[in-house]
């Protein structure tokens, strides 16, 4: 098996693994239960996405993808920071709003 | 054909978007708008035919042109424009929804009836 | 030499993928935000870092300086930003009243310490 | 090294590229758009002094009017086309103007000018500071772009420019009712443009090109069933924009909410762009789908024509009633589209031109009425006939104009539509057009009777003079009345001397039915197969090196 | 001389980042580099710079090693079927020795990436760093690890 | 010379409008004398037109034409033949009188200037309508009479009755006018078909081809449409009700409208169209039936009235019926009778209306039961009333008598039973009208003086001169039979019937022929009716009260029904519920996309299982999970986060299929969207449950599925055809060598399609302003959108809201 073949195979396998990771993370995003959990999971989602891009960059040989990955890192970071700030300033709603919603349900 | 799957996926996107848009709740409608935007972008992308992996970037300096196979660049350019425009629209509608919520105390489109009051007065029956 | 680099890169991305997978599993299995954060910020960051690194390796053969440099920058960027965001998020979550799970054995921090 | 060979290629590509400098006067085609957008951007940068901003916007608009007028003169001899950048269509984007687009653009700019003058009296400082004038210019830019572009995706872009600018204008003032109106307006209109984009994607997937002239060629060979669906989708999208029945709900829900000046702008400009796009796309681009769409068009046109004046009849809010008149006008345009022969299309194009001016003027007059009575509800108005002669004359002329009675200009397109429908044998449309005129005159004269003739407000004391009236007084309001008056008189004068518009309308209709000259203007007719010719030219160059 | 060398390195980095190793581009990078160096000439003129640089490298090395280790441990932990029994989370107050904000931040970040620990917050008086540990059977050992490892290195770098 | 004449004649038609424009100014400067000053215009026109009598009498037809809309073949063409000249003379002559009269009648009225303006314009419209040769010009002036009469009838605008009458007149005559327009255009289209050329708008061009038209398939629709136009204008049954109501107008208007103008326009049209459309059985039947009914209806109702103006108005209806009936007979004498009656009626009816105005002006009432003994106090008025009355009664030496003789001759000449039956109707109608004429000429002036609201006084000269003059004309016309016959009757009858006509009028009737005796019978009946007037009136009143409904009431009921129905319909169509609007939109979407395939077939073939790799399936699965989660989300945050997932999946799809730039942008936009959504929207309350009731869920769900399925199938169909890749080929070939860009997508964006990007930037910029304005503009400021009076503005807003 040549290096090229191996790399290609590894990339494909990694893509599969990453897909699974992506889906698992997705579950956490959906399940929550708190905003912070979701933000964390979304951050992870971005990480996995970056991994995706990186693997595709290797697979296709187009280095343009690298720029995308870096930019995505930046955006992911900023969004997490923004969320963290939000939780800090409007932290209460995360739990109390839920109660409100439950109250509204009843 | 790869496109078959995507045609169906796009259908699902459309269906979800439509269902969300009909939900009377401004937030859900906004989600619907986003999904619809994605659906349309995917549609243009698919309509321009799909090619795996190969971006339309010239790498072969000798030929100094794209060499088959390569992804169709034109739909990509169109979508790029559409995404940005769609995002601008989305941002506006989002803020609008927020302001409407603040001012009109509701997120329910059924109760937003300032412009078209529930019981519109009948014009007087005289001349 | 080229083959070797490619094998290396392949192994690296495989390891990275597996790390990402375990991070995702951790995210699912661990009981509370703080413990999950361990999984995401460590395994997750490492996974991403490895990916960047393997790009740098594949580019090394072609001596494509720009790509190597950018890959390294990306790698460094991930290492720098992941802890910052994790720290901020943990702090925010704690201040906003997120309690650690009941499994926590030692609890020295109280809300009043930082309010 | 690479650069040298490429330099040679430049000369070897005459088929895809412009091989000569664009004549200066062809720049006229894009000049209106460029002026507006640049003006809008400049206004954003300098949003300090109130008077300065308005004057600048007015100056720009006058420039736009002049260039539109010159362009219209040019297009009378045949369509004018120009390419931005060096790529000829279908590769690059071409701006192509024929009589219809140029005259519509001209009418739009005139309406904007009137509104700019009018709003001098109405605007608050904060509205000016939040970019009112910039938004108006951007709106005009979007509208002009939509009229003048020759590329269908570019048309979409201008639609969006127009839409977002109208969003901004819709909420200018920040009243609650505006927010509610903006929600309805916003969602429904954004959906319409999204449908347009969907249709565009499908269209590209079917014919593989975006230039309108090129689509004409390609659509003839395209598979029939998908083209029908695409045409239907375009009809839906543009029908929504044009406020055609039954997807016109957004218009009566929103047009009375913003300031009267803004309403006037919307009434004059927005729906007509939709109507223009309908004419352009269904008649020029996809004539083959006509058989399929014709019954639908008839139903839509009849519904719009008949239901719109009924809506106006049922309103007590003056500007909301006017909204239905706008729809009625769209019904006439749709009727022309459904009739489909030369006279029908001539009527449709002429009516659209007329409607832009008339509806703008009508909303401005309504603004003055609201200002004089201090009310928006017709039941609370009254007594204006005795109190304000010019306003009475203006309102009456406009009632006549929306009803399509002579001597207003609107009569002539109605006449053309009647002739067209008689020639085509579309009796339902004929009946609907006449019923529309009758119902509109009922609704209009009732408004007139309630607002002007009735002495006082509705109720027990309606015979006593209305003591709440305030004279337009204050110099700025007097000034606001001037552009309104000019517009009204203009409509009347056009009605008395309609020949030029007839000529323009005929050329527009002929251009729609026979797009050969339109295609020729873009140069596509001469270049049968640009790609392979380009390819050959390039190969040749390489071979000789 | 050092100044020139640094400038050259900067020029090459510029070329690498922009992805074009043409002469013009390198020259351009050089010019920018020299301007930048000239602007901050006061700060780089310190003799301790090289020592600090070496220590920073050392810190990075430790960090990378610890990071790999911690990633591996977390990975192993979460895939164990009996994860629950090995999981002993704790929040521990760690008495800080470093003083400046810059150092605290760096330490907090590094702690986050080291095995089993995650910094949660700093007390109001900046004396205690609260650390969350994934598995902390022994509080004091953990504190000792941190004090002897990263904190030491950081203090060396920043002196 | 011809040019000069063209301009002059066109100017004649337009001059009243110019005078109308300056009338308010004139009124302001000269005040009460404005009537005399402004009368110069109609008088001048009258004198100018007198000059045409001789040439027209000698058989000449004067035409004048100026180009108006050459591109559409419409010209300002006017034609002066016997018919139009007679009408024009009547209009301008009576117009002169009316203008002078109005100067006195409305003295001191605050809107006198406005009134003068309207009446002059109205006169101009009528003149234009009767002189026009071009059908469209005719129609334009026709509708102008509708509009100006609307303003005149509603002149006394403070009273609801006046407003109602004005709207009623506009609706009826305007509606009829629209139908007429269709008829005229159809006539034009027929002329295209007939001549195989461009066709003509000129009535004079078509006259010769009447025979052709009557055989054409278009004849029937054209006839019906023209008749509707004429009947509504001339107040024929069942459209007669608007005319008596139009009495709400000031008296000079009534006099003008009812004598020579407006209502006569319909008769004019019938006469004008007679050579083209007349002579067929259907023409005769329709005109006779409707004319006859109208005649009897109007004459009977006239007896029931007590208001002088109402009595006159109802007799006008009757006279119009008689005219229509006569035109319908088509025989030479009937047409001659119609022509004579037309002139006679114009003269006496105008005079009598003015008399009614004088009585009103002098006593303050028009109730015939409250009047009496005015002869001494208002001698001039009395004289005028007597002159009008005898002409209306058709006593010898008057124009009315001549007309009656001629029409009876027309019936008796025709022979057969049917004409006699028609003649009986005419006799009855004439007798009833005579009774009314006698009542007006006698009752107010004889007997004892009654108490009236005003102190009884004679009107000023400006007011009494007119009616006297008109009465005298009616008398003089009756005496100068030879001159009249030669100069008016012959040319007018020629114009109406389309062939030569020789007048044979005699001052002394031919006692050997039937008509004289029929006239005597008419007088006898008339006297009888006058004698029993009170009884008849009481009887009719009881009868009408018993019936209970009138055309008026029906009209009102229709109007209110229309308003109510419109309101109900608008509530249904424009209910203000956004989601239902959207339902309609999406139904439209599903239909638009799906119907073509349902109807025309062409379903796509679904091939074998698509060859997607595992990770591609994975990405699709992620997208589906995201979508599902968005749908299932019960809290806003879950929804927003799920939204992010599907967005990411889309970005991954873009990446997997060679679109890195897209993927990047999508990632960015998606993250930004989610962040902004979370930041902005977490404050909003997202109901846990969907607010939809199960029925709505099913409806929306199935609609959603339909939309999705339709678009899928359509896309699949399109994908079955090969795509024309010419554009892409060129981009691929030229991107590097010419545009110097390696990333073709970027090259397209900035070079090939740079203008799109330009627009896109504009959108983003504009969105920035709009959002900024949206956030910064909160409350405050003006609330109504009308710029002033804030406190009340709020009120308005609330009103709209409630």
* Largest interface chains and counts: D-F, 148 and 128 residues
What does the main sheet of chain C amount to?
none
What is the string of helix and strand elements of chain C?
HHHEH
State the end-to-end distance of chain C: 58 Å
Gap between N and C termini of chain A = 64 Å
Number of H- or I-type helical stretches of chain A: 4
Number of helices of chain C: 4
Low-confidence stretches of chain C: none
Low-confidence stretches of chain A: 93-97
User: How much is the radius of gyration of chain C in Å?
Assistant: 18 Å
Strands of chain A, count = 0
Question: Rough shape of chain A?
Answer: elongated
Helix proportion of chain C: over 70%
Question: Structural class of the secondary structure composition of chain A?
Answer: mainly alpha
Protein structure class of chain C: mainly alpha
Query: What integer value in Å does the Rg of chain A equal?
Result: 18 Å
Main sheet specs of chain A: none
Tell me the fraction of residues in β-strands of chain C, as a range. under 5%
SSE pattern of chain A, N- to C-terminal: HHHH
Q: How is this fold's topology laid out?
A:
The complex is a heterohexamer of chains A (about 110), B (about 130), C (about 120), D (about 550), E (about 160) and F (about 800).
Chain A: H1 3-31, H2 35-60, H3 64-89, H4 93-105
Helix pairs in contact in A: 1-2, 2-3
Chain B: H1 2-21, H2 26-47, H3 73-104
Chain E: H1 2-18, H2 23-39, H3 41-44, H4 49-79, H5 83-86, E1 90-95, H6 101-113, E2 117-122, E3 128-133, H7 139-158
Antiparallel strand pairs in E: 1-3, 2-3
Primary descriptors:
heterohexamer; A: 106 residues; mainly alpha; B: 127 residues
Describe the structure.
The complex is a heterohexamer of chains A (106), B (127), C (115), D (545), E (159) and F (802). Chain A has 106 residues and is an all-alpha fold. Chain A has helices at residues 3-31, 35-60, 64-89, 93-105. The N and C termini of chain A lie far apart (64 Å). Residues 93-97 of chain A have low confidence and may be disordered. With 115 residues, chain C is an all-alpha fold. Chain C has helices at residues 2-29, 33-62, 65-95, 111-114; one strand spanning 106-107. The relative contact order of chain C is 0.13. In chain D, strands 1-2 form a two-stranded antiparallel ribbon. The longest helix of chain D has 32 residues, at 176-207. Chain D has helices at 2-11, 31-45, 50-75, 99-122, 125-129, 132-148, 152-170, 176-207, 212-221, 224-242, 250-254, 260-285, 290-313, 318-339, 342-373, 384-387, 389-403, 411-424, 427-453, 475-496, 499-513, 516-521, 530-544, and strands spanning 80-83, 94-97. Chain D is globular. Residues 1-14 of chain D have low confidence and may be disordered. Chain D has 545 residues and is mainly alpha-helical. By secondary structure, chain F is mainly α. Chain F is built from 34 helices and two strands. In chain F, strands 1-2 form a two-stranded antiparallel sheet. In chain F, helix 15 (281-304) crosses helix 24 and helix 19 (399-414) packs across helix 21 (461-479). The model of chain F is unreliable at 781-802 (pLDDT under 50). Chains A and C meet through helix 1, helix 2 and helix 3 of A and helix 1, helix 2 and helix 3 of C.
């Amino acid at each position: 098996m040549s290096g090229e073949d191996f790399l290609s195979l590894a990339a494909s396998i990694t893509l599969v693994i990453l897909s699974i990771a992506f889906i698992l993370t997705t579950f956490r995003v959906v399940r929550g239960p708190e905003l912070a959990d979701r933000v964390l999971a979304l951050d992870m989602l971005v990480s996995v996405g970056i991994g995706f891009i990186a693997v595709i960059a290797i697979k296709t040989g187009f280095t343009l993808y690298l720029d995308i990955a870096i930019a995505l890192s930046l955006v992911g970071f900023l969004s997490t920071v923004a969320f963290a700030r939000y939780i800090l300033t409007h932290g209460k709603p995360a739990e109390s709003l839920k109660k409100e919603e439950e109250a509204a349900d009843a | 054909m790869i496109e078959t799957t995507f045609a169906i996926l796009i259908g699902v996107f459309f269906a979800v978007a439509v269902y969300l848009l009909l939900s009377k709740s401004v937030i859900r409608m906004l989600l619907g708008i986003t999904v619809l935007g994605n659906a349309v972008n995917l549609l243009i992308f698919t309509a321009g035919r799909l090619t795996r992996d190969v971006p339309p970037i010239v790498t072969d300096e000798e030929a100094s042109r794209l060499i088959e196979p390569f992804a169709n660049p034109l739909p990509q350019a169109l979508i790029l424009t559409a995404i940005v425009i769609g995002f601008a629209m989305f941002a506006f509608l989002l803020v609008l929804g927020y302001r409407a919520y603040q001012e009109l105390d509701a997120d329910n489109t059924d109760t937003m009836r300032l412009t078209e009051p529930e019981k519109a007065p009948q014009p007087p029956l005289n001349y | 030499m080229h083959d070797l680099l490619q094998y290396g890169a392949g192994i690296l991305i495989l390891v990275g993928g597996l790390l990402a997978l375990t991070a995702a599993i951790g995210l699912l299995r661990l009981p509370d935000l703080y413990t999950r954060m361990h999984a995401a910020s460590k395994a997750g960051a490492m996974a991403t870092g490895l990916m960047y690194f393997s790009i740098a390796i594949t580019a090394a053969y072609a001596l494509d300086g720009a790509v190597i440099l950018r890959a390294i920058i990306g790698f460094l960027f991930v290492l720098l930003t992941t802890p910052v965001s994790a720290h901020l998020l943990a702090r925010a979550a704690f201040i906003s009243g997120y309690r650690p799970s009941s499994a926590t054995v030692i609890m020295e921090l109280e809300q009043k310490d930082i309010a | 090294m690479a650069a040298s060979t490429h330099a040679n290629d430049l000369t070897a590509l005459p088929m895809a590229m412009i091989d000569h400098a664009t004549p200066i006067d062809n720049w006229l085609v894009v000049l209106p758009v460029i002026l507006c957008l640049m003006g809008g951007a400049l206004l954003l940068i300098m949003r300090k002094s109130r008077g300065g901003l308005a004057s600048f916007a007015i100056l720009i608009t006058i420039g736009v009017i002049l260039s539109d007028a010159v362009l219209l003169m040019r297009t009378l001899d045949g369509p004018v086309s120009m390419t931005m950048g060096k790529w000829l269509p279908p590769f690059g984007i071409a701006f192509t103007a024929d009589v219809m687009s140029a005259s519509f653009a001209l009418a739009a700019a005139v309406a904007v000018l009137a509104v700019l003058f009018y709003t001098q009296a109405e605007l608050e400082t904060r509205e000016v500071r939040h970019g009112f004038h910039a938004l108006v210019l951007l709106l005009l830019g979007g509208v002009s772009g939509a009229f003048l572009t020759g590329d269908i995706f570019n048309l979409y872009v201008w639609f969006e420019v127009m839409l977002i600018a109208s969003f901004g204008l819709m909420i200018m003032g920040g009243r609650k009712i505006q927010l509610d109106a903006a929600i309805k307006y916003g969602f429904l209109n954004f959906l319409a443009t999204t449908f347009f984009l969907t249709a565009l994607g499908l269209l590209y997937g079917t014919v593989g090109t975006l230039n309108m002239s090129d689509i004409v060629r390609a659509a003839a060979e395209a598979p029939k069933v998908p083209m029908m669906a695409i045409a239907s989708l375009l009809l839906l999208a543009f029908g929504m924009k044009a406020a055609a029945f039954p997807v016109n709900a957004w218009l009566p829900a929103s047009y009375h909410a913003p300031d009267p000046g803004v309403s006037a702008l919307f009434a004059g400009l927005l729906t007509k762009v939709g109507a223009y796009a309908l004419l352009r796309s269904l008649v020029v681009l996809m004539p083959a789908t006509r058989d399929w769409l014709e019954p639908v068009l008839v139903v839509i046109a009849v519904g719009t024509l008949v239901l719109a004046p009924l809506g106006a009849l049922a309103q007590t809010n003056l500007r909301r009633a006017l909204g239905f008149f706008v729809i009625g006008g769209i019904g006439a345009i749709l009727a022309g589209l459904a009739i489909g022969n030369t006279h029908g299309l001539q009527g449709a194009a002429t009516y659209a031109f007329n409607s832009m001016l008339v509806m703008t003027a009508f909303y401005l007059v309504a603004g003055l009425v609201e200002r004089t009575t201090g009310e928006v509800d017709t039941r609370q108005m009254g007594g204006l006939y005795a109190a304000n002669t010019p306003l009475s004359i203006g309102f009456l002329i406009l009632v006549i104009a929306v009803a399509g009675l002579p001597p207003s200009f609107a009569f002539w397109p109605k006449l053309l539509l009647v002739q067209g429908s008689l020639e085509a044998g579309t009796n339902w449309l004929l009946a609907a057009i006449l019923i529309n005129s009758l119902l509109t005159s009922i609704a209009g004269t009732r408004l007139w009777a309630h607002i002007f003739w009735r002495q006082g407000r509705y109720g027990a004391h309606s015979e006593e003079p209305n003591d709440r009236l305030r004279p337009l007084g204050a110099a700025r309001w007097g000034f606001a009345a001037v552009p309104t008056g000019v517009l009204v008189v203009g409509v009347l004068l056009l009605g008395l001397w309609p020949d030029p518009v007839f000529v323009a309308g005929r050329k527009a209709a002929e251009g729609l039915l026979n797009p050969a000259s339109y295609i020729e203007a873009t140069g596509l007719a001469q270049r049968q197969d640009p790609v392979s010719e380009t390819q050959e030219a390039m190969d040749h160059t390489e071979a000789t090196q | 001389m050092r100044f020139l060398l640094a400038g050259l390195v900067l020029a090459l980095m510029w070329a690498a980042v922009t992805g074009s190793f043409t002469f013009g581009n390198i020259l351009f990078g050089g010019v920018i580099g020299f301007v930048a160096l000239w602007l901050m000439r006061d700060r780089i003129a310190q003799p301790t710079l090289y020592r600090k640089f070496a220590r920073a490298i050392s810190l990075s090395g430790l960090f990378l090693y610890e990071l790999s280790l911690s990633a591996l441990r977390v990975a192993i932990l979460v895939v164990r079927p009996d994860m629950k029994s090995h999981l002993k989370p704790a929040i521990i107050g760690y008495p800080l020795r470093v003083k400046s904000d810059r150092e605290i931040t760096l330490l907090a970040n590094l702690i986050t990436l080291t095995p089993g620990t995650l910094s949660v917050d700093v007390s109001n008086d900046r004396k205690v760093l609260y650390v969350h540990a994934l598995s902390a059977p022994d509080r004091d050992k953990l504190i000792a690890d941190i004090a002897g490892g990263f904190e030491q290195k950081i203090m060396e770098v920043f002196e | 010379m011809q040019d000069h004449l063209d301009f002059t004649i066109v100017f004649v038609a337009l001059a009243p409008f110019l005078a109308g424009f300056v009338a308010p100014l004139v009124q302001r400067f000269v005040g009460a004398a404005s009537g005399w000053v402004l009368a110069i215009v109609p008088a001048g026109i009258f004198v100018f037109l007198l000059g045409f009598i001789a040439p027209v009498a000698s058989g000449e037809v004067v035409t004048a034409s100026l180009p108006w809309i050459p591109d559409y073949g419409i010209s300002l063409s006017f034609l002066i033949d016997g018919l139009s000249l007679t009408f024009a003379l009547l209009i301008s002559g009576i117009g002169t009188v009316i203008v002078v009269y109005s100067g006195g009648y409305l003295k001191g009225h605050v809107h006198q200037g406005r009134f003068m303006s309207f009446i002059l314009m109205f006169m101009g419209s009528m003149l234009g309508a009767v002189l026009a040769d071009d059908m469209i010009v005719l129609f334009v002036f026709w509708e102008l009479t509708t509009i100006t009469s609307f303003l005149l009838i509603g002149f006394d605008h403070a009273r609801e009755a006046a407003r109602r009458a004005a709207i009623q007149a506009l609706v009826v005559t305007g509606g009829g006018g629209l139908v007429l327009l269709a008829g005229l255009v159809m006539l034009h289209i027929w002329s295209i078909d007939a001549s195989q050329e461009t066709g003509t708008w000129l009535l004079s061009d078509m006259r010769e081809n009447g025979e052709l038209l009557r055989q054409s398939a278009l004849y029937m629709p054209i006839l019906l449409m023209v008749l509707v136009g004429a009947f509504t204008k001339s107040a024929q049954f069942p459209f007669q009700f608007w005319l008596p109501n139009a009495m709400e107008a000031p008296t000079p208007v009534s006099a003008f409208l009812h004598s020579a103008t407006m209502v006569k326009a319909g008769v004019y049209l019938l006469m004008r169209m007679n050579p083209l459309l007349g002579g067929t059985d259907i023409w005769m039947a329709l005109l006779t039936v409707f004319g006859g009914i109208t005649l009897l209806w109007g004459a009977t109702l006239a007896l029931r009235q007590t208001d002088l103006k109402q009595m006159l108005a109802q007799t006008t209806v009757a006279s119009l019926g008689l005219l229509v009936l006569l035109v319908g007979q088509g025989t030479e004498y009937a047409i001659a009778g119609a022509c004579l009656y037309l002139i006679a009626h114009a003269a006496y009816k105008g005079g009598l209306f003015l008399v009614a105005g004088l009585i009103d002006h002098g006593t303050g009432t028009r109730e015939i039961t409250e009047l009496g003994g005015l002869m001494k106090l208002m001698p001039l008025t009395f004289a005028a009333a007597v002159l009008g009355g005898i002409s209306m009664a058709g006593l010898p030496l008057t124009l009315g008598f001549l007309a009656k003789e001629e029409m009876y001759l027309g019936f008796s000449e025709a022979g057969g039973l049917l004409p006699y039956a028609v003649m009986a109707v005419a006799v009855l109608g004439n007798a009833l009208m005579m009774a009314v004429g006698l009542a007006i000429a006698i009752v107010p002036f004889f007997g004892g003086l009654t108490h009236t609201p005003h102190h009884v006084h004679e009107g000023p000269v400006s007011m009494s001169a007119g009616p006297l003059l008109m009465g005298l004309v009616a008398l003089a016309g009756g005496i100068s039979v030879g001159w009249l016959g030669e100069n008016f009757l012959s040319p007018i009858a020629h114009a109406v019937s389309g062939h030569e006509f020789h007048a044979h009028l005699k001052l002394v009737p031919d006692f050997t022929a039937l008509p004289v005796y029929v006239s005597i019978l008419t007088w006898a009946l008339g006297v009888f009716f006058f004698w029993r007037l009170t009884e008849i009136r009481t009887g009719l009143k009881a009868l009408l009260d018993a019936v209970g409904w009138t055309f008026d009431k029906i009209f009102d009921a229709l109007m209110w029904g229309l308003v109510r129905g419109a309101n109900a319909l608008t509530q249904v169509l424009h209910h203000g519920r956004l989601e239902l609007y959207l339902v309609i939109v999406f139904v439209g979407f599903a239909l638009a996309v799906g119907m073509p395939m349902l109807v025309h077939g062409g379903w796509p073939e679904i091939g074998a299982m698509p060859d997607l790799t595992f990770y591609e399936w994975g990405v699709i699965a992620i997208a589906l999970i995201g979508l599902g989660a968005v749908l299932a989300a019960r809290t806003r945050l879950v929804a927003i986060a799920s939204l992010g997932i599907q967005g990411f999946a889309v970005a991954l799809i873009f990446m997997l299929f060679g679109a890195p730039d897209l993927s990047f942008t999508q990632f960015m936009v998606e993250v930004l969207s989610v962040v902004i959504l979370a930041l902005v929207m977490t404050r909003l309350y997202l109901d846990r449950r969907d607010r939809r009731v199960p029925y709505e869920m099913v409806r929306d769900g199935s609609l959603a599925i339909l939309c999705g399925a339709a678009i899928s199938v359509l896309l699949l169909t399109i994908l079955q055809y090969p795509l024309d890749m010419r554009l892409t080929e060129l981009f691929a070939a030229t991107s590097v060598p010419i545009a110097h860009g390696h990333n073709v997508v970027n090259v397209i964006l900035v070079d090939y399609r740079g203008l799109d990007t330009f627009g896109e930037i504009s959108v983003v910029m504009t969105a920035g302003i709009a959002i900024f304005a949206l956030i910064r503009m909160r409350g405050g400021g003006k609330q109504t959108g009308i710029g002033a009076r804030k406190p009340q503005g709020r009120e308005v807003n609330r009103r709209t809201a409630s």
